[in-house]
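$ fold --in a.seq
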Amino acid sequence: MRIVNGSAAFSAATAVSVTIGNFDGVHLGHQELLRRTVARAKSTGTAPVALTFSPHPVRFFSPKARFYEITSLEEKAERIAGFGIEALVVESFTGEVGRMDPVKFAGEILALRLRARYAIVGYDFTFGRNRSGSPAMLAGIGRELGFEVEVVPSLVRGGLIVSSTRIRELLLAGRVREAEELMSRPYRVSGVVVAGAGRGRKLGYPTANIQFTQELIPLPGVYIVEAEVAGVRRRAVANVGFNPTFGENSFGVETHLMGFHGDLYGQEVAIHFRDRIRDERKFKSVEELVRQIEKDVRYAAGARFPDRIEPGGRAPDSAAAGGSAG
């Protein structure tokens, strides 16, 4: 899949079937949009394209709002590519696009620059200045400009509509298993392993201290995770928080990879959150902490999760032993 910076730079040999959205999290609803776009393109001889925006429109309209994106642009592109989209057009939302009225957006961006013949959007899609455009409005404009609009209905799981907002709320509440169900994959954070205080090794449970790059980190606590190093996943236990037993006040993600005895310093590690074990808490003694870590590791080692093939990827190596570092 090619990534195009701005619709003005886009070119295609044929007309286009385009889906439009922020695709934050690339959740089940987004995945349905992508599947339908690829299916439409195959049946009509058009090119399957996705149009997204950077920065996220929330940052444009409400720059002071407390807002966390679920996926980086790089991960978003990786996920979208897995569905067969041929080009991802990343439109800057800091200039004229954010201020275009709906008619100009549809005419300039979709009809003229992207040569859209079909536009596939979600039921809640808004566009144009002040988010004044709706799917019904887009369909009407499309009839005038020569493209057809398909509106994909909401997807409901657990009695609630699948949405990026709902996933954000679940992750911030530590409900990572439920968030996984809505994304069809575990939530992932990643970063380089850096030197820590070295306490884990002294306690018999060395940890990799991840200098994560994501803004959205699940609620502090202890989690069952899969630690991915060089494309291989291993079962692990991660502590998200402040290490209150040792009086620390800096937020971090420390991960014990079960059965691993290598050196991870300086390496990129991705942490896939599978389930939350417990809250982070302050223990009366180091001995009490070690006993609890032993319980956490035993519990994590025996936990079972349903096999899942991630869209555009492969099933995690659930049989691999977990490990540790640092």
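$ fold --in b.seq
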Amino acid sequence: MVILTLNCGSSSAKYQVYDWEKKDILAVGVVERIGLEYSTIEHKANGKKEYHSKFSSPTHKEAIELIIKMLMDEEYGVIKNLSEIGAVGHRVLHGGELFKQSALVNDEVVEQLKKVIPLGPLHMPANIMGIEAARKAMPDVPQAIVLDTAWHQTMPAEAFMYAVPYDWYKKYNVRRYGFHGTSHLYCAKRAAVLLGKKNEDTNVIICHIGNGASVCAVKNGVCIDTSMGLTPLEGLVMGSRSGDIDPAIIPFMMENTGMSAKEMDTVLNKKSGLIGLCGMSDRRDVLNAAKEGNEKAQLSIDIECHRLRKYIGGYATLLGRVDAIVFTAGVGEMGGHIRKGSCVGLEVIGAQLDEHKNDVCHCRNGEFEISADDSKVKIFVIPTDEELVMTEDAFALMNGTYDVHTNFHYTFENKDYENKGRARDLVKNIEKNPELKTILAMPK
């Protein structure tokens, strides 16, 4: 059976096609610039030439229609007809307090999602448009929503409540929700495998570091705290987001500059973080500038790592015992300098980085241990696989095997798990850099 996953952003639609029986990725792709003067599609299928093209996509409806057409294309496609698709999984940013678990889609679910739009006005409309377009194109195919916020629903009240008037929570649902849930969940399960422990016996701190970034404290296999809040703005220093600041800065700057609330929101989300500090958001550009003597770039790196260390140290006190620290997502997987800066001083909690392992670990297709041999706390680099989480949930919901008590049902936590597409890429990386073999931690 084939499972299609869709991740619709405000102006993009990413997709993956997964063969459930063969446990292999058949195709991946992305449609970008939806709603602009022209859109683009990039499509990659196993054993076939890559396809790139421009086309007109005023809405997500046209994007979904083209994706389906590409999947059945005689030259570039991977299926013969839509009957081969057994389920569709949709990534959804925010479930508010209405959705605490993944769910099969019906008309009522779509209407409920629309009620959550105020909590994610930039992403939720696109998520919903993608769902509606896919349902119209594939009305007979079971479809599921997988929510970024669901993984964090196990947080206790003392972690998710803010010290603001209680009515804000009751009337407006103001609380910490957390994001990157599919990534944190995947890494928590895989860390347990690498540690040789049961999920319910595992305490880990997961650092998802990309353009957006968050930290998650996992105790006994479930989330007990996370750095992002009502929205993805709170927490770490990010590519263009400020993360934690004194709330009084907002009215202070509005009074001094005349900015409106909407303008201030734009500044904090799109013109702050690393862009605000040094004018660059790509960590590679920031690092190269720092090496060339750019003081603002170096300061940006120092501030980002300082914030990360504060969260890791704070979460260590919540956990009491830390089994592992995990780095994931684009920067977490590839940015050795950020990992190194984030681990400075963590010897106090028993975490010791092996700098050589860290320096040679630039591979997004394998799981690696980069801690020193005598480190009491393991340090892992685990490439995230949010698409697989979506695939697993869609399959489990469709087949009635979704565990409503634990929220999730996954085969990838098993020691015999293998993603063939990832394994192929891993072999190529090891061939280029044999040193990676010495730190390879992916179980066979």
